[in-house]
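Predict the holo structure. Ligand: FE2/S2 (inorganic) cluster.
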Amino acid sequence: MAQRRRYLFVCVNRRPDGTPKGSCAARGGVELHAELKEMLKARGLAELEVRACTSSCLDTCWAGPTIAVEPDHYFYGRVTRADLPEIVEALAENRRVERLVLTPDDFVEPRELKKRSP
Ligand code: FES
């Protein structure tokens, strides 16, 4: 296997039910990773271009499910299954899906979560 051009780190971290911060697994991260992996393979990108890996918490839980795209160094957030075809197509065309890219503000933990989360 070759070193891929890009690696996608799909957060699949799971916290106990009822945790205020929630988790990407509770928002479908595990299923997103599996589906993304299949779609990259079907699109012919998996061998040389893009590998979808699982990740632990990327510390943007409130904007999850989150996917870090490296080495481009941007994050997709609030990703749903419906977004995956667009994400895969953008990867094939060497571009980003701008509407899903997290902004600097998205990396700031909301104040109401700071006091409540363990
Ligand atoms: S649980 Fe996914 S970013 Fe924290």
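Residues 6-105 form a domain with the Glutaredoxin fold (CATH 3.40.30.10). The pocket of FE2/S2 (inorganic) cluster is lined by residues 11, 13, 23-24, 57-61, 64, 66 (CB under 6 Å).
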